Amino acid sequence: LKMQNQEKFMNILLNCYLYQQKIVPSAFQQIRNTEVFNQLGYAFIAGLISGEEKGRVQNEK
């Protein structure tokens, strides 16, 4: 996202969803505006980070 390369980010995003065997949200499929794409991309990354911390807390219990 920092490098403004939407194709590369989408490739990584698709690989993440394929690895988790989940469906890619339709919001990512329909974006044409760079600003909106960046906002959703950063929200996706923030979700990965917060999900990682939740996993650590559960594993410690």
Q: Helical region count?
A: 3
Per DSSP, what share of the residues sits in E-state strands of 2 or more residues? Answer: under 5%
Report the biggest beta sheet as strand number plus sense, adding barrel if it closes. none
- State the end-to-end distance: 35 Å
Q: How many strand elements?
A: 0
Radius of gyration: 13 Å
Query: Low-confidence parts, pLDDT < 50 over ≥5 residues?
Result: none
Q: Overall pLDDT, averaged?
A: 78
Q: What is the SS-derived class? A: mainly alpha
Can you walk me through this structure?
The chain has 61 residues and is mainly alpha-helical. It has one domain. The chain is built from 3 helices and no strands. The protein has helices at residues 6-20, 26-29, 34-60. The longest helix is centred in the C-terminal third of the chain and has 27 residues, at 34-60. The chain is globular and about 25 Å long.
What's the short story on this structure?
This protein has 61 residues and is an all-alpha fold. It has three helices and no strands. The protein has helices at residues 6-20, 26-29, 34-60.
Q: Could you list some keywords that capture this structure?
A:
mainly alpha
